[in-house]
Amino acid sequence: MLKRILGTTFALALFALPLAAQATPAAPMAKPAAPVAKPAAVTPDVTITGTVIDTYCNTTQGASGAAHKACAAACAGKGVSLAILGSDGIIYLPVSSKAADPQNERLLPFAEGKVKVTGVPRENHGLHTIEIRTIEAAM
Questions:
Q1: CATH for 46-137?
Q2: Which of 3, 70, 80, 102, CA to CA, is 20 to 30 A from 62?
Q3: What is the mean pLDDT of residues 50-57?
Q4: pTM value?
C-alpha cells in the first residue's frame, strides 16, 4: 500500500510540476519607454481670401459662381460640405475645435460668394483645413 501511495504522489508531482512552472510569473520584462508626445505647435492665425464652394458640384462638375448659388445652398442643406477655395488655389475644409460641430451653417450665407476668413490652418495627408475664428464677405 505504501508503494501505491508513493507512486501516485510521484506521478501527481511529475504532472503538476510543469503546470506550477507555468503559473509562476516570470521576471517582468522591461517595458519600452513610452514615446514622449511633443506639445502641439501653436499655429498662428492666418487670413485666407477665397470663394465658398460646395465640394461636390465644384470638384465633380466644375460648377461655381452666382448662377450656382441656389444649387450650392440646396446641396449644403442635404449635407454636402461647403469649403473655401482660396485665392491660392487650395480648397480649405472648415473644421471646429469641438468634435461633431459642422461648419456649413457658418458658410451658408456666403455660398458662391467671396469671403475673408481668419483662423488656424492645418494640413494632414494633403487635406487642408481651417478652424475659422472670423468670417466676413470680401470684395
A1: 2.40.50
A2: 102
A3: 96
A4: 0.69
